[in-house]
What does this fold into?
Amino acid sequence: MDHFHYLRGHLHAEDVPIAHIATAVGTPFYCYSTATLTRHYTVFRDALAGLDATICYAMKANPNLAVVATLAGLGAGADVVSEGELRRALAAGVPADRIVFSGVGKTEEELTFALTCGIMQINVESEPELHMLNRLAVDLGVQASVALRVNPDVDAGTHAKITTGRKENKFGIEWIRAHRVMREAALLPGIALRGVAVHIGSQLTELEPFRDAFLRLRDLVAMLRADGIPITRLDLGGGLGVPYEDEIPPSPEAYAAVVREVLGDLDCKLIFEPGRVLVGNAGLLVSRVIHVKEGATRTFAVLDAGMNDLMRPALYDSHHAIVPVNEPPPDVERVPVDVVGPICETTDTFARQRMLPALRAGALVAFRTAGAYGAAMSSTYNSRPLIPEVLVRGDAFSLIRARPTYDEMLAQETLPDWLGGT
Ligand SMILES: *Cc1c(COP(=O)(O)O)cnc(C)c1O
It folds into this structure.
């Protein structure tokens, strides 16, 4: 459920007409809804009631400071994957003791910064990383609070580009070595071993892969405890899907029921790292039709948004619902159209042969479910400025990232002296 709806024939974000925002900030832009963020966070949190759970929002889904601050205000911690995200989390008001640092290639500088901040947990993904972290912690005279990310080798049944829990994926410590590495970690002076972490992929639409991974985790905990290694925390990752088209992902309640059933009696603190499920439905990408072009065999709607602004269709063949900002009459005729961006790449195509009411040049359209991995993945390809982001709350809206000017973009680059630079 989200708070984007037609009111008197015009698409609104909560109480604000999308067209007003378009006039104020220009197109294209991202628009997020506070009420939707709040609702998704609350539903997820309430589903976990009774468990000793910490929700660490996976910031890579949408790292905007205002989005993170909104979730932090509701009690969320953060799951970060770089020093940049860690600094953002702190700047947005997330307490260090609610931050988890994940990622397959953290550098010495990043780990040192995390150790000096005293964050809740560093998820170690390999033996070399374990030893690097141990050395850095010993040098600093601290102990790193660590969970080992293991790779449970389960098939998440999701798009191959976003599955992470198979043995051929680069993530986590191989399942068959996990036990040995845990024993090794428990002996290192700079490591305070707290538990085990898994994250098997993103946009999961079935519960079985979660159950399979949690069952393997349960077995591992039993083995480790039998060896006298105390396990007090389990980090279950993120991955719960959202509906983009006609998929029906499990509800947070159903997901939590599996957690309770498989892991509820282990007496562990549980960490959750939801990203997409908190922010996906809370965002729109709004764009204007530049031209409607009749090709030899099909009609193209050329938008002012491109694959640099929303990369998911080009990267993962993902589907986003596209709706006109002016509500079409219920009986409107729909015609097939290819919705494309202006970029010089064939893959800059948002939808092929999509059945939409006939679009005209100048019309505004909105891509739904664009709050996750949208702005976060955007680039300036084709020297296109990063697009603005706007946060709505009730009848108010605020520009939370401004569109840079062309002068600002050019000022980031310099000419060497042999080309006339100073
Ligand atoms: C990306 C990621 C998440 C969040 O995944 P979603 O599918 O957005 O919930 C959580 N944990 C880790 C380690 C990740 O890499």
